[in-house]
Write a structure and sequence with these properties.
This protein is mainly alpha-helical. It has 10 helices and 6 strands.
């Protein structure tokens, strides 16, 4: 998971900008009546986000009994995320925040949408609140859907409030039977608070990162086979291991917890792989 700076836009002004686009007088008046509720919901959200307590925010099917979840969904799709509207500029700016458009939830695929950290169907007051909207790839967005954490440890990581990339936690190992397979796991440092460790594991499981990274590593193995064979011919097992260690070090500098860095580190540590395991990589 890659941390991001919080959006500069606040919930109230974003909501009001969306309301300005509504032509139906009755609907616009109804929306205007809950502006204070939108602001209060954002304040509560920010406080709980900092304290890792977003799961405590109660679900609701309306805002103050005035505006329903369905109506907020209509406002989101009809103004905020709709092309060629004034609020869409905010949507696009939030979506473009990650470096190289890489999804902060999986750290691999390309951002295509905004994910509601707390689902808009369950938390209508947060449907258009920028701090509840996280840039995401379509796969991560679908995997999470409208999931509601029941306790603190059930919460996935939040790019605006959580930072887990200051230390290495993504590790991998090589399955040394037949064609090599790289397997991944989340192994957070023991010095971390237990809640942070639990949430990292939850995030890793919910977004199926072990499976995703193993598939990507399999492709990487195929790409490296010929190069490793040439290195082995020139410098033997020691040369193969040195090359893999250099690749791992380079990738760790770029990102502490990328599947690439974990892959190369695991391969370099495997004497079996460096000796002849790489020759079993399918062509």
């Amino acid at each position: 998971m890659r941390s991001l700076a919080k959006p500069e836009y606040d919930g109230r002004s974003t909501f009001e900008l969306c309301v300005e686009s509504i032509r139906d007088d009755d609907f616009r008046e109804k929306l205007e009546s809950v502006v204070d509720d939108i602001e209060a919901a954002e304040t509560t959200y920010t406080q709980n986000g900092k304290g890792e307590q977003l799961f405590t925010i109660a679900e609701a099917d309306s805002i103050g009994g005035k505006v329903t979840s369905a109506e907020m969904g209509t406002l989101y799709k009809g103004t905020f995320s709709r092309q060629d509207t004034a609020p869409r500029a905010i949507y696009d700016e939030i979506k473009a925040a990650p470096t190289n458009s890489i999804c902060p939830l999986c750290g691999h695929r390309v951002v295509t949408t905004l994910d509601h950290y707390l689902a808009k169907s369950r938390h209508p007051a947060l449907a258009i609140t920028p701090v509840n909207l996280v840039p995401a790839c379509s796969d991560c967005n679908k995997l999470k859907l409208n999931r509601q954490p029941a306790q603190a440890s059930d919460q996935t990581l939040h790019p605006y409030f959580d930072n887990v990339d200051d230390e290495v936690w993504l590790v991998a190992g090589v399955k040394e039977i037949g064609p090599p397979v790289v397997e991944f796991e989340a192994a957070p440092p023991l010095a971390w608070p237990e809640l942070k460790r639990s949430r990292l594991r939850t995030h890793f499981r919910i977004f199926q990162l072990a499976e995703l990274y193993s598939i990507q590593a399999a492709v990487e193995l195929v790409n490296m086979r010929d190069n490793l064979e040439m290195i082995a011919e020139r410098t033997g097992t020691a040369g193969v291991q040195k090359h893999l260690e250099e690749q791992a070090g380079s990738r760790r500098k770029a990102a502490h917890n990328s599947w690439q860095s974990a892959t190369y580190e695991a391969l370099a540590k495997s004497d079996w792989f460096c000796t002849n395991g790489f020759t079993l990589i399918p062509r």
